[in-house]
Structures are given as structure tokens and as C-alpha cells.
Amino acid sequence: MNTLIPAQIKKGMLAFVLTFSFADTAFAAVQTVTLAVPSMDNCEICPITVRKALEKVPGVSRVSVSFKNRDAVVTYDNAKTAIQTLEHATFEAGYASTVETSNKQGVAQ
Questions:
Q1: Is 60 a member of any domain?
Q2: Residue 21: pLDDT above 50?
Q3: Fewest CB atoms within 10 A around its CB: which of 2, 84, 97, 107?
Q4: Residue 64 covered by a domain
Q5: 3-state secondary structure the chain
């Protein structure tokens, strides 16, 4: 009969702990959300300001702002940031934003 010695138990416990400590990152996903930014007026700088504010948010990998559509399409890592953080970033830049209705759940597109 094989019996575990303390060193083997420690290694097994360490492997177990390490496996589950990285479980959160395994569930992280790249998400894409469209933010409505209706306050972008007839100003050439507005889309640039919104884009730069969103690009500064940790976890954001891509931003596309449309002046014509008054929106911003943002691709981000949901393990590093949240939709509320994106909305706050545009608000702090002077442009309130909200998730477009089709994206209320923050589902990846």
C-alpha cells in the first residue's frame, strides 16, 4: 500500500491551490460593447477625445468612435475592466455614454 509522505501532500495541495487561483482568468473573456455617446456635438475633436479616454482604460484593446452614429465600439477584457468603467471614462472626458439597448447584458459580439 502506498502512503503519501508530507512532501507529496504539500505538492498536491500546491497544485490544487494554483489550479484554482487561476480559475478567474480562465473565465475572462474579450467583450465588445457599443456605447451610445449622444453628447458628441458638431465638433471635430469630440470623437478623438472619447477614443483617447477609452483607450486609457486598462483592458481596452480596441476603440472605434463614429461621429455620424454618435457611438463608440469598444473591445475590452472583462477580467480587467467593466462596462461601468468605460461609461465613467467617457463621462470624465465630458461625454456621457450608455450601453446601447442591444448590448445591455454586455454580451460579446
A1: yes
A2: no
A3: 2
A4: yes
A5: CCCCCHHHHHHHHHHHHHHHHCHHHHCCCEEEEEEECCCCCCCCCHHHHHHHHHHCCCCEEEEEEECCCCEEEEEEECCCCCHHHHHHHHHHCCCCCEECHHHCCCCCC
- Please say whether the beta carbons of 40 and 47 come within 8 A: yes
As given in the structure block, the three cell numbers for residue 4 are: 503519501
Looking up residue 84, the CATH number of its domain turns out to be: 3.30.70.100
Q: Which domain holds residue 79?
A: 28-103
pLDDT for the residue 44:
86
59-84: burial string, b at 16+ Cβ within 10 Å, e else: bbeebebebeebbbbbbbebeebebe
